[in-house]
Amino acid sequence: MEFETSRWVRPLWMLRELGVDFDTVEVDRGQLDSPEFRALNPMGKVPVLVDQGVAICESAAIVLYLGDRFPSPPLPAPGTPERGVHDARVMHIVTEFEPPLWLWHRAVKHGEGGPEVIALAKRKLAVAAGQVESSETFQAADLLLSTLLTWSVGQPMWADFPELVRYRDRNIARPAFPQCLFDRELRDSPTRAR
Ligand SMILES: N[C@@H](CCC(=O)N[C@@H](CS)C(=O)NCC(=O)O)C(=O)O
């Protein structure tokens, strides 16, 4: 499925981290409005995970679900303080970080939005840059954040955030990362350290 963003990589990456068997089904954009697909996700968006006959939407929720279903190091156990801290990171990523990053992605790729969009994204990136180098262990939250950091990855603005580039490159070098899926975005990246 040729989408300009790749939230569907998140569950795929998590499944590969967990070593779980799974099947994938490709849908094209035209199918997202079909009654069959809307029955799985009323929002008409990918990704959707179907497990035991139940459809689960929202990429971050799917990643957390998978980590609980197949317990493994990328996700602290439910009900522990570590999990509380972890999930706070996830909430921050999806509510505070992802929306401005998305607008910035649109701005640089499609010329939408003004300088204020870039300025807000830069402020958010600066906050993230101050946090990532202290995170030593790879967790589900790092998976989510790293996928966001591949958006508009080749843009000159990345030169301002070498910590984020190092962090992202370290994480997407993991064997479980579905590398081929990002080749399109990373191909021309001047900041990617290979
Ligand atoms: N918050 C949702 C966003 C899902 C989303 O926007 N998916 C995009 C692909 S990355 C999509 O399906 N776009 C198709 C459309 O909006 O028509 C999630 O994280 O799963």
Description:
- The protein is mainly α and 194 residues long.
- It has two domains: 9-69, Glutaredoxin (3-Layer(aba) Sandwich); 81-186, Glutathione S-transferase Yfyf (Class Pi), Chain A, domain 2 (Up-down Bundle), CATH 1.20.1050.10.
- The chain has eight helices and two strands; from the N terminus they run H-H-E-E-H-H-H-H-H-H.
- It has helices at 9-18, 35-40, 59-69, 81-110, 115-132, 140-148, 162-172, 179-186; strands at 48-51, 54-57.
- It has a two-stranded antiparallel ribbon with strand order 1-2.
- The longest helix has 30 residues, at 81-110.
- It is globular, with a radius of gyration of 17 Å.
- It starts with 8 loop residues before the first helix and ends in an 8-residue tail after the last helix.
- Residues 3, 5-7, 32, 45-47, 58-60 line the site of glutathione.
- The site of glutathione has 11 residues, from helix 3.
Q: Which terms would index this structure?
A:
194 residues; mainly alpha; Glutaredoxin; two-stranded antiparallel ribbon; 8 helices; disordered C terminus; binds glutathione
Quick structural gist:
The protein is mainly alpha-helical and 194 residues long.
**Proportion of residues in helical segments:** 40-55%
CATH class of the largest domain, please?
Answer: Mainly Alpha
Q: Could you give the order of strands across the largest sheet? A: 1-2
Strand content: under 5%
By DSSP, the count of extended strands is 2
The CATH architecture of the largest domain: Up-down Bundle
* Helix-and-strand structural type: mainly alpha
Rg, please? 17 Å
H/E order of the elements? Answer: HHEEHHHHHH
